[in-house]
Amino acid sequence: MGADLALQPAPLDELFEPPKCLTDRFLDPPSSQQPSCTEKPVLIESYWCYSAPDQAPAPSELPALRNKCITFISLNNFTKCSRPTLQTWSTLLSLIPNSHLILFCPEGSHRDRLREMFDNRVEFVHRLSFIDYLAAYTRADIALDPFPYCGGATTCDALFMGLPVVTLAGEVAPHRAGASILSQLDLSHLITHSADSYVQTARDLAADLDDLSKLRQNLRQRMLHSALCDGIGFTRDLERAYREIWRTHCRVGA
Fold first, then answer.
1. CB 121, CB 52: distance < 8 Å
2. I want to staple 180 with a disulfide (CB 3.0 to 4.6 A). Which of 27, 42, 46, 113 is the partner?
3. What are the residues whose beta carbons fall under 8 Å from the beta carbon of 185, sequence distance 6 or more?
């Protein structure tokens, strides 16, 4: 019997490491790890590597200075605009006189419902060329991140065009993209954790046009000098992570 037991195969969890998941400490902070997670996180400095578009126009003067009103914008895929997101944005606009929203939204009857929700203070755009998409940011002052599923590349584009992005961070990685990106730029004050704090953060931004204007002029350079735009550093970090994964695999399989 003892010999038979000795020939039994070892449990799978002793032979194989769980799949690896590349992430960063902001997307997956240790405090938020779920015990049921089947993937083992491998941390890199930044999950995001942004390639600055050559054709991007220079950040414009803050539109609010000439318009005398605040313009918000969201050019994210409209499917990310959940009902709580739209209700929060509607509340925000109702609290800031004369403010309005530029919203990426396909054509359809839902636009009528949105006009009613936003008291006709919404402008819809759809199917823009990339150049026109970037140019749209020159017309707005503050970008709004949808939730719970946040933007990624769209958030980077808005920041590159000089717009601060207000985000609401959740408990899992797809709900923390904005938090991860903003943390790389030392803009953690734009990361919120409830609809109320989201609205208040956006209102605080809108109330200080001097600060908003200064931020608009330095955000691009801040991005270019951050880990977000460090392609060489990102590649080296990724190679380090791959080596770590391979060495672990070799130790377990030995």
1. no
2. 27
3. 159, 219, 222, 223, 226, 228
- Count of beta carbons in the 10 Å neighbourhood of residue 210: 9
Number of residues written out for the chain: 254
User: Would you state the structure tokens that stand for residue 235, as one six-digit string?
Assistant: 């590649």
pLDDT digits (tens, 9 = 90+) for 175-205: 999 999 999 999 999 999 999 999 999 999 9
Q: Say what the pTM is.
A: 0.88
- Three-class SS state of 213: helix
**Encoded tokens for 190:** 């734009």
Query: What residue ranges do the domains of the chain occupy?
Result: 14-48+230-253, 63-226
167 three-state secondary structure: strand
Q: What is the C-alpha separation between 130 and 171, in angstroms, rounded?
A: 32
> ∠ CA(62), CA(207), CA(90), 5° rounding?
95
Q: Nearest-CA neighbor of 139 among 70, 210, 52, 223? A: 70
SS3 114: helix
